[in-house]
Specification:
The complex is a heterodimer of chains A (669) and B (46). Chain A is mostly helical and 669 residues long. Chain A has 4 domains: 117 residues, Methane Monooxygenase Hydroxylase, Chain G, domain 1; 175 residues; 175 residues; 173 residues, no CATH class. Chain A has 20 helices and no strands. Chain A starts with a helix and ends with a helix. Chain B is built from 1 helix and no strands. The longest helix of chain B has 44 residues. Chain B is rod-shaped and about 65 Å long. The chains are: A mainly alpha (669), B mainly alpha (46).
Amino acid sequence: MSVNKNEIAEKLNEKKSNEVTTSLQDIRSSMERILGSDISSGDSRLEKINKTIEKLNAMLSGLTDLYEVNEGVGIHVQELIAKKDTLSLEETKEYASTIHGSLGEVNSQLQSINMAYDKMFNQDKLLNEFNIALNNSMNVSDNASIDSANVFNTLNAVVQKLGQYKDKISKDIDTVKTTDKKEVVENVNIDEIKADYERMKNEYITKKNSAEGVIANNDKENDEEINNVESIIKEISELDESSDPNIQRKKEDLMLNAQENLSEMNNNKDAIESYKKGVSDSTAFTDLCNEADALITRLESEKKSSLDRLDSNITDLEKNNMYRLEALYKEVGEREGEMKELNLSSDIKDVNEVLDRLDAVIKGGNIAENDLTKLEEAKKYADTAEVKTNVNKSIKAYEDKKLDLGKMLEEAENIEMINGEGSEYRKRMYNEMTEQKKWIGQSPVRMNDDNEMFSINKLQMESLLEFAQEKSDEVKKMISECEKRIKERNDIFGDDISIEQAIKETQENIKNMNNTVGETMKNLKKSQLEALREVNQVEINDILLDKKVFPAGVSVVSADDVTDVIDKVRDYEGDKGEQSAKVNYDAQEYSTLGLSKYVPEQRDLIVLLEIIKTPGVSSEFDKLKDLFNPNIAEIPLLGKVSKAFNSAQRPDLVEAMNVAIEEKKKLIN
Amino acid sequence: MNDEKKQINDQIEELQKQYLDQKTAILDLKNMIETKKKELRNNLNK
C-alpha cells in the first residue's frame, strides 16, 4: 500500500486545526466566560447554587467536547498503530509527534477544568498542592542563595589565602633580615614561594569563572521560583470564599505564608546579586597580587644581602681553623692508607717466595731449572741484602708516617678553638670543628690494630731474613760448585760454555730425547722391553754413569750420549733394539740421574706407562713411589697417573696410587 | 535502525496509554461533576 506523504501531512494538519485546536479554543473561551462570573458574598443562597450549577454545566460541556477531541486523537493513535509498518520512519515520527502535541493540549485543558473544579469544591486539596509548591520554591530559592554564598566564599578563601601568603612572605623577609643562621636564610626557598603564588593565581581564575556561572544560574532559578510564587498568590487570591471556615483560614494562612516566602525570596535575590558583584570584582585580589609581587622581589634582595652579611661575619681565624682541620682530616686518611701499605705484609710475602725458591733449589740438589730466568732469580734471592734493604725502608717509612700522624694530632689539639660564644653560626662551626678534632683523635685507636700487625710482621720478617741468609749461603755454595763443574766440563770437551749454555744444552737434549722416546713407546712390545732391560741394564748404567758430568749440580747429557747407548743396544736387536734401548735408557736415566726433576710430568708418565706394560709390576711400585718427590711431583700429576692405571685396568695400581696421593698430601701439609 | 524502530514503537505505546488515561480522567471528572450537580440540586430542594 503506497502512502502519500503530503496527503498524510495535510490530513494531520486538518485534524489538528479542526478537531483539536479549534475545539479546545472553543472550550476554553466558553469555560472562561461562565467560570469567570464570580459568585459574590452578596448573592443569595439560591443565586449561589444556580451560579455554581451553571459553572458545573459549563465544565461538563467542556469535558464532553474534550472527550470528543480526545477520541479524535485516539483514532489517529489507532491509525498510526495500523500504518506504522508501512510508513517510513520519518513519517511515523512526524505523525507520532503531532499526536503527542494534540494529547498534550487535551491534557492541559483537562487540568484547567480539574483546577476549576478544585477551586470550587476541592480547595483543601488545592491549598495543599499550593503549600507543597510554595515550600519547594522556597527551598530552591534558599539553596540558590546558599550555593551562591558557598561559591563566593570559596573564591574569597583563595583571596584570603593569598593574603596569608603575603603575610608569610613579609615574615620571611623579617627572618632573613634578622637571623644569624646562614642555614635559615638558605632554607628560604624563593622558587617554591613563586610556584605557590602562581598556583594560587591560577586557582583564583578557575574558581572565579566557575563561580560566575554558578551564581548566574542560581539567580535565574530564583527568579523562576519568584514568578511561581507570585502566580500561586494570584491563584489563592482568586479562589471563591469557602463555606468551610477551616478551609477559609487555611487559605488565609497560606496566602500570608506565600507573601512571606516571596519576601524572603526577594531577599535571596538581593543576596545573590551581591555575591555576583563580589565575584566579578577582582580588585582585592589584584591588589594582593601587586603587593605579593613587590614582597617577593624584596625577599630575593634581602636574602642575597643577608647571605653576604652572614658570610662576612666569619673571621679569618675561624676560616683558617676550619680549612686546616679539613686538610688534617684528609691527611690523616691518607696517612692511614699509606701505613696500611707499609705494614710489611708484602715484604714478608716476597721473602717467603725467596725462601721457597732457595728451598726448592737446595732440596732438588740442582739449581738448574727448565727456565733460565729462575736461575737468575735464585741468584738474586741468594743475596738477601736487597730484600733486607727494602724491608728496612718499609719499617722506616712506617715509623715516619706514625710520627706524621702524631704531629697532626698535636696540631689539631693546638688549634685555638672558638669558645662557642657569639652567633649561632659560630657555635655551629665550633661544634663541627670539635667533631673533626674528635675524629682525628680517634685515629690512633683505629691504628692500634695496624700497629700490632706491624710489630708481629716485623718480628716475623727478622726471623725470615735470618733463615733466608742461611739458605742463601747454601745456594751460593751450590752455584760455586756448579761453576767449578762447568769449568771441569769445559776442560774435558775443550770448549768454553757458560753455566747458562750448559743448562740450555741439557734442556735441548732432554727435550729431543723425550720426543723420541714418546714416539718409540707407541711401537714397543712388552717382551722387547723385558728382554732389553735385562740385557742392557748394567751396560747402560755404566755408560750413563760415565757420561754424568755434573752429578750433584747441573746434568748435561749430549746427543752423543744418547747415540752411544743406542749403538750398544743395536748390537742385540737391530733397529727394534735401538728403540727399546732408548726407552730403557730413558727410564734408567730418569731414575738414576735425577733428570726427571727437570721434566717431571713427562718423566713420570713415561716411566709409569712402561711399568704398566711390564708383568709383575707390583714390585716396581715402591720404586715408583720413590720417584714422587714431594717437591717436584704434583697431586694433579698423580691423579693423571692414577687415571692411566685405571685405563690399563690395573685396579691394584690405582689403589696403590691413591695411597701415594694421600701420602703426598700429608707431605705437603 | 532497530533501536530507533523500537524507540518509536515504545513512543506509540506511550501515546496510546496517554490517550486512554486521559479518556478515563475525563469520564471520572464528568462523573464527579454530575454527582456534585445532583448534590447541589438536592440542597436546593431542601
